Amino acid sequence: MTGPRSTHCTTQSVLTVLLLVACCLASGCRSSQKQHHTGLQAWRSGDLQNSAKRLQKASGPLNTEKELLLLDQSIIALASGEPHVAESHLRSARDRIDYLKQKNAVEQTASVLSDSRAIAWSGREFEHHMLVNVAMLSSLVNDGQDAWAWSLQAMQTSKDRRDALVAAATKSSGKTATSATSDSTTAVTPASFENSPPPKITAETLDQPLALAAYLTAIVHSEKPTETAETERALQDVRLWNPQFSTASAGKLTPLGIQCRKTHGTLHVIVLAGVAPEWVSESCEPTSAALLIADQILSAQSKHSLPPTLFSVKIARPQSTDPARADLTPGAAIVGTGIGTERRQLGFSTIVDLREVAQASYLAGRDKAIADAVVRRVVKKGTVVAAKAMSNQSLDWKADLAMSAVGVAWEALEKADTRSWSTLPAAVRIAAEELPSGEYNLDLWTRPLSERYPVHAQPVKVRIEDGRNTCVLLTMPADRITGAILLGGADRNIIPAP
């Protein structure tokens, strides 16, 4: 009787240990997480000081998600008038994320024991693009020294994506591919001596962050006569990645830098408006596509197979936008000697809507997320069944019930991976105006007002120089201006938070 009893005890002990390990992996550092969460709540309500204080407390030595914290802190640093700190945070986060993108066998095993949160967070693709965008913005409103380097990274990313779309379009239709868009698409000629029409490509919603990267790249290069080709390429990319974006009449873009008329320059008002949607947990039934992916993963990595029936699994999705906060639209008006006594109101256009982008990212990765959750559930069930089979002869009904309970508890510990860059804006909106050189008074407010002269406008003095770009950056998480206003380019200044 010693042998069976020993096997029985050993099997139960192994399952108990696995359950305890899963509990430890799922718990994490509660104190840091709580401070982080409280700081994000303060940020969404517009409480900048409390948010910065909470996130600073969360950045202790026990915090295992430093890259996520650095990203959240970078936006708050921008809003606090510290672009150099923001850029430093972003550079550190980029280096950590580049390393964490590599697969780690220990993390992969831990994720099977618990859930996908055991894998170090390395961000979604659109968050990678926004990292470069915010870093370039931070440099533009600081000393501008690294803006050129960030723009090169953005240009390479844009080129890689464009090449991928061209390859996909060419493959889908043999030699050529036709897009539904016309002048808003970029035609790329394949390396061929045949007189075949070049394939045309159409951007997806997920590509919107590349439009912002291209616009900022154009700002960086448009002040140098030797870089006109780079400027034109960047402006073409803006039209490709977001054909709806326009800063001038008739769907055109305002001239930048040396593209302006003689003795004129360009004013860019860039607003990080609102807060990107939170990612929350949802229960969903496995789709056919997800089951196919899961079956392929199981066939390649284990001896388990899909059961005939599966219950719903938990994955992350972006939360629907609160209707009360959906229309957070900035307003701006400018007056100065260069335009006479006219008070000119600037029109804003959305270059990237991160609510749409987050939803597109969710839909693109939904089947894979479901498949991963299904694989984890199958492996956990298989482990419990195998453990019961090993001690089948000595297992009474009480022990069998106990092992089943352990298995159920093990599966119940799984949570959706809702980690995200939470301080990103809901949208980036830009107004641009070609103006004669000189000084101007710019009024900014957070909502379009029916009155001709806004009552609660934030005044800003700006200077326009010949052939130069003047950038005004406003971070506006709530429905009022609570952060600093940053000026960069031809006119550098920091207007403290009101």
Summed up:
With 498 residues, the chain is α+β, with helices and mostly antiparallel strands.
Strand content: 15-25%
Biggest sheet strand order reads 6-7-1-10-11-12
Estimate the global geometry from the Cα principal axes.
Answer: globular
Average per-residue pLDDT, rounded, comes to 80
Based on helices, strands and strand pairing, what is the structural class?
alpha+beta
Task: Write structural notes for this entry.
By secondary structure, the protein is α+β, with helices and mostly antiparallel strands. It has helices spanning 2-27, 30-44, 48-58, 66-79, 83-100, 105-113, 125-140, 147-172, 208-221, 228-241, 288-301, 354-390, 397-412; strands at 264-273, 279-284, 313-318, 331-336, 344-346, 349-353, 427-436, 438-445, 458-464, 469-476, 485-489, 493-495. Helices cover 46% and strands 15% of the residues. A 6-stranded mixed beta sheet has the order 6-7-1-10-11-12. A 4-stranded antiparallel beta sheet has the order 5-4-8-9, with no helix packed on it. Helix 5 runs antiparallel to helix 7, helix 7 runs antiparallel to helix 8 and helix 7 (125-140) packs parallel to helix 9 (208-221). The chain starts with a helix and ends with a strand.
Chart the SSEs and their pairings:
Layout: H1 2-27, H2 30-44, H3 48-58, H4 66-79, H5 83-100, H6 105-113, H7 125-140, H8 147-172, H9 208-221, H10 228-241, E1 264-273, E2 279-284, H11 288-301, E3 313-318, E4 331-336, E5 344-346, E6 349-353, H12 354-390, H13 397-412, E7 427-436, E8 438-445, E9 458-464, E10 469-476, E11 485-489, E12 493-495
Parallel strand pairs: 1-10
Antiparallel strand pairs: 1-7, 2-3, 4-5, 4-8, 6-7, 8-9, 10-11, 11-12
Helix pairs in contact: 1-12, 1-13, 2-3, 3-4, 4-5, 5-7, 7-8, 7-9, 8-9, 9-10, 11-12, 12-13
